[in-house]
Design a protein that fits this description.
About 55% of the residues lie in helices and about 0% in strands. It is mainly α and about 130 residues long. The protein has a domain of about 70 residues: Cytochrome Bc1 Complex, Chain D, domain 2 (Orthogonal Bundle).
Length: about 130
């Protein structure tokens, strides 16, 4: 019995020793939850980084490029002459068509999180220099 108790004690000691060599940071990383949730009203880490409206270029690269970058479905490419007749109808018409959708041009250019100002900035980016 004494031997068994001794063996148990040694075992516990060994376990304790390994545990104590771990630093707490390492342990915290290992037991950290896989994902994080944010309760309503709490600020998400990603949201904290976003500041102010996105630039026209950012909106273009995030959404409009899918069609306007390649000319898919005859979407006018940035800086292309195809924009001339569209510009001629006035910026407000282009903005309205972008917000509401127009033929194969989807509403908000598929950017569901965009404000109307951000859409306008993306139009300015694409028509720059035309
Ligand atoms: C799914 C493809 C697609 C995406 C994504 C897309 N567009 Fe378009 N867009 C089109 C097509 C196709 C047209 C041409 C529609 C036509 O004239 O029949 C068009 C036309 C336009 C026009 C001209 C409208 C007019 O009055 O002549 C503007 C402005 C425009 N897009 C802005 C945007 C902006 C800004 C984004 C991104 C936020 C965007 N588009 C994303 C396909 C797309």
């Amino acid at each position: 019995m004494k031997k068994l108790t001794f063996a148990l004690a040694m075992l516990l000691l060994a376990v304790g020793a390994t545990a104590s060599t771990d630093n707490n940071e390492e342990l915290a990383k290992r037991i950290a939850p896989v994902g994080q949730i944010y309760v309503a009203g709490q600020q998400a880490a990603a949201a904290e980084q976003a500041s102010g409206p996105r630039s026209g270029e950012q909106v273009y690269n995030g959404a409009c490029i899918a069609c306007h970058g390649t000319g898919a479905l005859n979407a006018p490419k940035p800086g292309a002459d195809d924009w001339k007749p569209r510009i001629a109808q006035g910026f407000d018409v282009m903005l309205k068509h972008s917000i509401e959708g127009f033929n194969n041009m989807p509403a908000m250019g598929t950017c569901a999180t965009c404000s109307e100002d951000e859409i306008a900035a993306a139009i300015r980016f694409m028509t720059d220099g035309v």
